[in-house]
Design brief:
Layout (H helix, E strand, L loop, with lengths): L19 H8 L6 E3 L5 E2 L2 E5 H5 L7 E4 L7 E5 L5 E5 L10 E3 L4 E3 L6 E2 L5 E3 L11 E4 L2 E5 L6
Parallel strand pairs: 1-4
Antiparallel strand pairs: 2-3, 3-12, 4-5, 5-6, 7-8, 8-9, 9-10, 11-12
The protein binds FE2/S2 (inorganic) cluster.
FE2/S2 (inorganic) cluster (FES) binds next to loops.
């Protein structure tokens, strides 16, 4: 899949509002660096993340965005082409946090090996539902995500 910075894909996955080490124990999934949304970055259903903070994790790595009680948490994975893959983080099977697989170019759940396309479509079980993918775009030096489809 080839997309420009303006065609940023946003994949979503819900997660619980717990610390990173607690997440690893309670959710059994991948642990990622975290970015916590502030009042300035989350206005209604619109999230604005500085692109530099996303790119800093590196291609193939994942930044977990904590959104508090109003919306499901997101995973952002910068691509080499300047775009960003975005999904809600929680696997629809049992809630483990999925991880980006840069070799297969898809999302994988570390708990029971469910797999999802970049667009969030489940391709391998035991998960039977897709990850959610909120609309997003790059505006200047920021990633802007429409969270209306991932309200908690
Ligand atoms: S929690 Fe993801 S496959 Fe079971």
């Amino acid at each position: 899949m080839s997309t420009s910075r303006r065609d940023v894909l946003v994949f979503g996955a819900s997660a619980f509002a717990l610390g990173a080490s607690g997440c690893a124990i309670l959710r059994g999934g991948a642990v990622h660096p975290q970015w916590k949304a502030s009042q300035a970055s989350l206005v209604g259903d619109t999230l604005t993340v500085p692109l530099a903070d996303v790119v800093a994790v590196g291609p193939g790595k994942v930044l977990e965005v904590r959104l508090g009680p109003s919306h499901k948490d997101l995973l952002l994975s910068p691509r080499a082409d300047g775009g960003v893959n975005v999904v809600t983080g929680a696997c629809p099977h049992n809630g483990c946090i999925v991880d980006f697989d840069p070799v297969k170019n898809d999302w994988a759940c570390p708990c029971h090996e469910s797999r999802f396309t970049l667009e969030g479509k489940v391709t391998g079980g035991p998960a039977k539902k897709n990850l959610k993918v909120p609309a997003s775009r790059v505006e200047g030096d920021a990633l802007v995500v429409d969270l209306s489809s991932v309200r908690a």
